[in-house]
Design a protein that fits this description.
The protein is α+β, with helices and mostly antiparallel strands and about 375 residues long. It has helices at about 5-25, 50-60, 115-130, 135-150, 155-170, 215-220, 255-270, 275-285, 290-295, 305-320, 335-340, and strands spanning about 30-35, 40-45, 75-80, 85, 90-95, 185-190, 205-210, 235-240, 250, 295-300, 350-355. The radius of gyration is 38 Å and the shape is elongated.
Length: about 375
């Protein structure tokens, strides 16, 4: 990584060297052909006028920081980028070149990815095979290689044959270019299944759809963040228990439980019977305990839509067990809840005491005292 100008500056420098040094070799006919792509160079020299050692020595003497490592042709073959150039007696032929370390891995056909993304690699391979001037033998051999790669990645052969026919039709009968609108916009959807392709909401608009996948290697290998959140900092259905009579109040909140508990304590200390639990404490003059003593977690819930039915379930369960404070009147008995209560394996609601976080043990030092009225 570095400055975005690095590539441009390097290209300017290399073109300067080519104009000042390589151009003289081309003019003297020592080099018959010279071409460069980024840092890959291919050249054809006249063996009568020069030799490879002289050419490399001249190139390495252009600048002290440039040292070339030439690869001469072997058995009339030399590779340049993804091409294999073959020297014949009367002409040059080309073939597709793959490095020995190349693998056959592509997006698997059974992977949950858009079909365009799955076929992108094969579309490139087939279009390269058809557009390059390969002879019949090299083209058939490349086609067999593409089919072998596709088969190893669970692609059906008929799908590749159909794709090849489509690309051949596009090459032989090119479609006229359309005047696309400049204000075309793109909308990105997360690809979850092939059914998302059936979305036709933007069909007759200037909005085009692209897809992104969440099952990438980066997402699958990303370590999960382990966060030890104290229980009283979560949003749960909970109950508050009176320290004197052991009767409970059930409530649900979107706040964290510590904030909810502090709200009840403020109502008690200010003699404001706005909630059923504060009414019970103020009317009966009973004691309330600390956060760890009074509050109990009843049910962890991920969806807020389940808070109300879960709250009603525990209210009805405590009421039937005779453990609900009288200030909290339950609604009409729910027959589904009654069916659960009558099950022989049903036990009273399981509770989890709230463990007070060490940092908050002295937050309300007088919570265990009886309020004054």
């Amino acid at each position: 990584m570095g400055s975005p100008l690095s590539g441009t500056i390097a290209e300017i420098f290399l073109q300067h060297l080519e104009n000042s040094h390589i151009k003289t070799l081309l003019d003297s006919k020592c080099i018959m052909f010279y071409s460069r792509y980024v840092d890959d160079i291919i050249l054809i020299y006249d063996a009568i006028r020069t030799n490879p050692e002289t050419t490399v020595h001249h190139a390495n003497s252009m600048h002290s920081n440039i040292q070339l490592s030439p690869t001469p042709e072997t058995k009339n073959h030399i590779s340049f980028l993804d091409l294999l150039i073959i020297r014949k007696s009367q002409q040059l032929e080309i073939d597709i070149y793959r490095k020995p370390t190349t693998t056959d891995a592509t997006i698997n056909y059974l992977s949950n990815h858009p079909m365009k993304q799955k076929l992108a690699a094969y579309r490139y391979h087939i279009e390269r095979m058809l557009r390059l001037p390969l002879n019949r033998t090299h083209q058939l051999r490349e086609w067999q290689t593409i089919l072998r790669i596709a088969t190893s990645n669970n692609f059906p052969t008929t799908l590749l044959q159909k794709l090849k026919q489509q690309i051949q039709h596009q090459i032989t009968t090119p479609t006229p270019t359309k005047n696309t609108e400049k204000n075309t916009k793109w909308a990105t959807f997360t690809f979850s299944s092939p059914h998302i392709r059936k979305i036709t909401l933007f069909r007759h608009t200037n909005v085009k759809i692209s897809y992104k996948c969440s099952n990438t290697v980066a997402q699958l290998t990303k370590p999960t963040a382990s966060r030890n959140i104290p229980p009283h900092d979560k949003s749960w259905v909970c109950c508050l228990t009176c320290k004197t009579c052991n009767l409970s109040y059930v409530g649900q909140t979107n706040w964290n439980l510590k904030t909810c508990f502090q709200e009840h304590i403020i109502y008690i200390k200010t003699n404001s019977p706005q909630l059923a639990y504060t009414q019970h404490i103020l009317h009966t003059q009973h004691e309330y305990g600390t956060l760890a003593e009074s509050m109990t977690l009843l049910k962890p819930l991920q969806h807020e839509s389940m808070l109300l039915p879960c709250e009603q379930f525990h209210i009805q369960s405590l009421h039937q067990a005779g453990k609900l404070i009288p200030q909290q009147c339950p609604n009409d008995p729910n027959p589904l809840f009654q069916l659960v209560f009558s099950h022989p394996h049903h036990t009273c609601h399981k509770t989890e005491p709230v463990k007070q976080h060490p940092a908050n043990r002295t937050h309300n030092p007088q919570l265990h005292t009886r309020p004054t009225t």
